[in-house]
Specification:
The chain is of the alpha/beta class and about 200 residues long. It contains 8 helices and 6 strands, in the order βαβααβαβααββαα. It has one domain: Rossmann fold (3-Layer(aba) Sandwich). It has helices at about 20-25, 40, 50-60, 75-85, 125-130, 130-140, 160-175, 190-195, and strands spanning about 5-10, 35, 60-65, 100-110, 145, 150. The protein is globular, with a radius of gyration of 16 Å.
């Protein structure tokens, strides 16, 4: 048995992003993975809520892939969440459509990993900054996986970028094929990024 994965991708300037172009190329054609490019589908921000809710019902694992803009997501990803994860569908007394499913994020950040620490430039870890998204998942009855993070994007050469993309592909394959118990990813003292990247070697 395998998980069906939905990648919800949001990047308003993909043509200028070496990293996300590589990540997209690595996973968009994987069997069992549906790639949903929000800016391509909804350049006018007119999200088709029925379509998106149907996709959510049909998949087991949702991956929110985007650049980490101002400690958050691009505007269309937030719009998607505001409209699609509505009361009565995703949460509330009768909002049980996502119960038992799983969510994770795959993000890029210009800063090094050391910048996302209490003593670093940004003062908080990526995991701490993602708490609102994590709580969104939990309110919807979903499990939350550690994030896949590509740090220091401006410093990566082509070889390093290709390595990140291959790791991302392997992580999604491992999750698709249920090669690991998601609960095991939270039962370790390793950093959140290290935990999810451990799947790349399975």
């Amino acid at each position: 048995m395998s998980r069906k994965i939905l990648v919800l991708f949001a990047h308003p300037a993909l043509q200028r992003s070496r990293v996300h172009k590589a990540l997209v190329a690595a996973v968009h054609d994987l069997e069992g993975v549906t790639f949903n490019d929000l800016y391509e589908l909804y350049p006018d921000f007119m999200v088709d809520v029925d379509r998106e809710q149907t996709l959510l019902r049909e998949h087991d694992l949702m991956v929110l892939q985007h650049p980490f803009y101002w400690y958050s997501s691009p505007a269309l990803m937030k719009e998607w969440m505001d409209l699609v994860l509505e009361h009565g569908f995703a949460y509330g007394r009768h909002g049980t459509a996502l119960v038992g499913k799983t969510m994770m994020v795959a993000i890029s950040a210009g800063g090094r990993e050391t910048a996302y620490r209490e003593e670093g430039l940004n003062h908080y870890t990526i995991a701490e900054l993602l708490r609102p998204v994590e709580q969104t998942a939990r309110l919807c009855g979903m499990s939350w996986l550690p994030p896949f993070v590509v740090h220091g994007t401006h410093l990566l050469d082509d070889h390093a970028t290709a390595r990140e993309a291959e790791d991302y592909r392997r992580v999604l394959i491992a999750l698709r094929d249920e090669a690991v118990d998601p609960a095991a990813l939270t039962a370790t003292t390793a950093s959140s990024s290290e935990r999810i990247r451990s799947l790349a070697s399975t």
